[in-house]
Amino acid sequence: MKRILCLLLLPILVTACSTISDWIYGNPPLTSLRQITVSTELAANSDNATMLDFVFVYEASAVVRLPKTGPEWFEQKDALKKALAIGIEVVSLQVPAGSPDFEVDFPSRASKAIGVYALANYLTVDGQPIANLTPWKKARVQLRAKTITFSGN
Question: What burial class does residue 38 get, using C-beta atoms within 10 Å of its C-beta: 0-12 exposed, 13-18 middle, 19+ buried?
Fold first, then answer.
């Protein structure tokens, strides 16, 4: 009976150990994000076009180097893209206020990303923090008059 129980538990233990060792040795799990939809209000970003970047991260060391706000990101963007090289890919958009809803095109290797982050260059502080879209399969970004909301499932 003990032998059968051990055989039944072995796959669970192997999976758990593999997951733990991935994190210890810097190989975090991949994101399950497969879709990002962007919607805008007529008066989004105080009725201005919004620079919106989606950063796909492939190396754990790159996550800690990402700025915490949109303005910081856009100020350092070129230098960070050079420094992080193949560790990230950026999808950059210029979204006019009141645009129809659309889906974001992903980079070809997006399925290998360990994280996906959204950054916007908003006029108001409430629209400037970095957003982690990594946990969701489908994310929705809503550009509003003074802020951005993020949701997903």
Answer: buried
- Those residues with Cβ within 8 angstroms of residue 38's Cβ, 6 or more apart along the chain or in another chain: 52, 93, 95, 99, 101, 102, 103, 104, 140, 141, 142, 143
Coil, helix or strand for 79? helix
- Rounded CA-CA distance 63/25 in Å is 15
User: Rounded to whole angstroms, how far apart are CA atoms 52 and 148?
Assistant: 11
* Radius of gyration of the chain measured on its C-alpha atoms: 19
Q: 109: which 2 tokens? A: 């290797």
Q: Which is nearest to 49 in space by CA: 120, 105, 119?
A: 120
> In this predicted model, what pLDDT tens digit does every residue of 43-61 receive, in sequence order?
999 999 999 999 999 999 9
Q: How many residues does the chain have?
A: 153
Task: Indicate the pTM of the whole model.
Answer: 0.82
User: Could you report the per-residue pLDDT of 94-144, keeping only the tens digit for each?
Assistant: 999 999 999 999 999 999 999 999 999 999 999 999 999 999 999 999 999
